[in-house]
Amino acid sequence: PGAGDIPPEALREQYEHLQDEVRRHRTAYYQNDAPEVSDAEYDALYRRLEDLEALHPEIVSNDSPTQEVGGEVSTAFAPVTHLARMYSLDDLFSIEELRAWYEKTSASIEAIAPGAAEKGIRWLVEVKIDGLAVNLLYREGKLVRAATRGDGTTGEDVTHNVMTIRDIPQQLAGSGWPDEMEVRGEIFMPSADFRAFNEQRVEQGLDPFANPRNSAAGSLRQKDPAETAKRPLSMFVHGIGAHTGLQAESQHETYQLLAEWGLPTSPYTRIVDSLEGAGGKDGKHGDGGILQFIEDNGAQRHGLVHEIDGIVVKVDSFALQRALGHTSRVPRWSAAYKYPPEEVHTRLLDIRVNV
Ligand code: NAD
Questions:
Q1: Class assignment of domain 132-264+348-354?
Q2: pLDDT value of position 352
């Protein structure tokens, strides 16, 4: 029998069990930086929860993991309330899902701004860095606070730890920065450093980290900043939060400004004009489109500075981003395409073999 035929009590039981499982894995992942299952297994579990809710909308509870941004906040750190909320991203697990999202989003844009599609919508494609999000608060050009994403509203205060990361300026360069500005980025451990770091841990008889993401998160969330200082951490910016008058109309202009002020921006980001990349009506943006970007980065997936687990598509225009808005968990103007899972543990095994 299909899930639709389950008696109400069994359905509730199944629903609560799935919720508990997702919550348990989230705690292991976000609070302890020690996942018990692979991301692909977690994603499959999460998808089952989403599917069950889609099939039985009447049972959806407000505190379901599908209604909230996933990170829990550890009491080991002081809580920080973000000035503007931080969001997660909707995951797309196949090209068909990506196509459906692209068409739905284009149609919404056309409804908001008739003629927009005809003129050409600008999309930003970025690699999805396998790290953890931070929110950097700059006042008068000075870094005054840094926090993890947490549940999107409240994160963990990691200011002293972030101050040890060389890529992140404590004083912005140039001029013209807003009086107050939240910069969002991804902290990561570069792949080469991650391998060396893990080998060192194994030599010292310590457990290796499962992946660069957990390694970055574990390194950033140290009680002692001197310990974080020893870890090879980097960052690329991928967004902006609250600000007092940033002079930019789009995401890519914002990246240009942030780069001028000394913040590290990703060298992999591209602007494309469509999914298929026909080259645009005027032929000016001869790019391979979103699909080509996915293919290119998939082929060199482990050849980038950092590990990636997918690519992120964003509507570039801030006016359109505002008009599309957010759900309680994710923006409607952006989504993440996830590459199919690879063999897990091969990298760790390689290390063990090499030792
Ligand atoms: P997500 O990682 O799928 O997407 C949102 C995050 O992507 C953002 O918060 C940001 O930090 C990051 N990101 C990286 N590059 C970006 C870019 N260029 N632009 C914008 N954002 C970018 O969502 P999530 O809610 O953070 O967590 C879900 C992820 O965590 C999934 O990959 C899931 O598999 C994994 N997870 C695994 C377990 C486990 O037990 N293995 C448990 C919980 C979560």
A1: alpha beta
A2: 39
Reported as type and span, the H/E element at residue 139 is strand 132-139
| 68 Cβ closer than 6 Å to some ligand 1 atom | no
Task: Spell out the alpha helix ranges (H) of the chain.
Answer: 8-26, 39-55, 95-112, 116-119, 159-162, 191-203, 212-220, 225-229, 251-260, 289-299, 318-324, 346-354
Segments of the chain scoring below 50 in pLDDT: 1, 280-285, 345-355
| CA 98/CA 95 separation, integer angstroms | 5
Q: Residue 231 and residue 216: Cα distance in Å, rounded?
A: 8
- pLDDT tens track for 179-232: 999 999 999 999 999 999 999 999 999 988 888 999 999 999 999 999 999 999
CA torsion 337-338-340-341 (nearest 10°) is 180
Distance of CA 331 to the CA centre of its chain: 12
Backbone angles phi and psi of 76, in degrees to 5: -70, -15
Q: What is the pLDDT of residue 33?
A: 82
Domain boundaries, the chain: 1-67, 132-264+348-354
* Residue bearing the CA closest to ligand 1, atom 25: 88
Ligand 1 mutation target, pool 214, 238, 290, 321, most atoms within 8 A of CB? 238
The answer for residues whose C-beta is within 8 angstroms of residue 63's C-beta and 6 or more apart is none
Over the stretch 226-284, which tens digit does the pLDDT of each residue have?
999 999 999 999 999 999 989 999 999 999 999 999 999 999 999 999 999 875 444 44
> 174 CA distance to ligand 1 centroid (A)?
32
User: DSSP character for 265?
Assistant: B
Q: CATH says 1-67 is which class?
A: mainly alpha
Residue 179: predicted pLDDT: 97
